[in-house]
Amino acid sequence: KLSEKWERKALSFLETFKSSVINVCYSTSSSIDEELAALTTRVVPLFSITFTVLITFSVLSCMMLDNVRSKPWLGMLGVLSAGMAIAASMGLCLYCGVKFNSVVASMPFLALGIGVDDLFVMLAAWRKTHPGHSVEERMGETYADAAVSITITTITDGLAFGIGAITTIPAVRIFCIYTGVAVLFDYLFQITFFGACMVYIGHREKGNRHAVTCKRVPTPDEAKDRSGCFRAMCTGNTMAGVGSDGEYHGSDHAVMVFFRKYFGPFITKWWVKIIVLLIYGAYLGCAIWGCLQV
What we know:
Helix content: 55-70%
Number of strands: 0
Radius of gyration: 26 Å
Distance between the termini: 37 Å
Oligomer: single chain
């Protein structure tokens, strides 16, 4: 207690000390804990902002021009799945007696990023399936494509945090335990809870129901005599992209179309390759120079 009082007095003096000839740098036994606590108070309020931005981004990314094939609710449920993994991780670790420290406050941001990434992997695999197939067949094809990627990602992330959990640094060890458990729960919720949500959304899409109201809507061909606003907002076709021969030719998201039709051909041009290599070389040189300045 006496040493703590002395440290506080010394810090209060050093914080106000000014000199034109002496530069003072100070550190005490409690400096790290105090800085981490201060960091937490600055980071935690940003979590609500991050959560809101991620929900908005996920919803917009899940939407399409077709009102039936859009999936705004799925974007929200994907973020909810990641949030459930965070809550489950915190609850299990605290129940098992793992101490909470200030570094763990940054764990939700990482877990949310991994969860949203899994969401998009699953959604991209679903969009590749034939809309004329049953929901069960489409889900089987989705899991066959996406579950492998999600599983490999979970294993590699789990191994990374598992190795970090055996370190001798307490703060790092506790952070890795919380994050590793969150990654595991995220995987479990992704293949169970989120997969079940996709089944419900798949049945809605199969029934040609509106993405927001879940009401059955006519196809654009069936609503030719209706107003333009009605056709834009209240029609959709679950079989969009299926030709007269019954083959599915794809009806991709605008972002997928951009990367396939425009960015892919652009990045493969010879002069673009040279520019990319030069930029990467300059970045690598600056990074090495910065490391040598430490």
